[in-house]
Amino acid sequence: MRCGIFSDPDTEQSRQADSHTERIYILLCCNGYVHGRVEVHAGQDLQGPLCDSKGMRPSHQVSPDTRPLSTQVHNKERMEWVKNRSGKELAIINDFTYYNDFKSKSTSTWRCTRGRTCRSRFIIDNTGKVVRINLEHDHLAPRYFVRDVTWVKNRWGKQLAIVSDYSFYNDKRSNSTISWRCTRGTTCKARFIVNLNNVMQRRNLTHNHRPCKYLIHNGLYRLGTTEPLSGGVPEVPSVRLGSHRHPIPG
């Protein structure tokens, strides 16, 4: 089963804009059927299937501060931790999504969101270490990665994309795609590529730092302070525009 994401061009409700700020709403589509319109609140992260095969959302939520933003598992595979629209946590490995099926005092079991028909699962202990893992699926990986995007302008009038409280600038543009890169610059590899209709084509949304504090007022984006992931001395906040960095006074 292959799935896709599409922006909704037919309804005014799919886009909600003021003079400067536009919020993109995305339709979930599987096998040609529309399963609903996704709306994510500020600070929430949405990716992969919203429900398991029984129509139930994951029941367990772990604080994002209790483990790394991503984890290396099983050779070269990387595990990402995201949240669905209800704030419940999902794990992603090789584009397959997992929900928390069972939790004991020492471990938690995560199953493929396809449900009981798929045997893929993994078990981690309370430190986040993988104890057991089975990455064999009986179906194709979902092909939709749904994210809420807010388009704003910085103080110099340049457009930025805000995804899960992280800001991205327009790095490259071709005749068919636009590449957006984390404003942290070359020290962070997070980026995503959309087509001209803002449909996600490729992404790496794993950051090596916490999101910056910011304020959006009348559609204008302004940085506050930055808290380094390592807990070091906060740096002077800045926005990367092309090959230049412009410090913002505190």
From TrEMBL:
Transmembrane segments: none annotated. Residues 82-139, 152-209 form the FLYWCH-type domain. GO terms for molecular function: zinc ion binding. Gene3D superfamilies: 2.20.25.240. InterPro entries: Znf_FLYWCH. It comes from the Eukaryota. Keywords: Metal-binding, Zinc, Zinc-finger. The keyword Metal-binding applies. This is Mod.
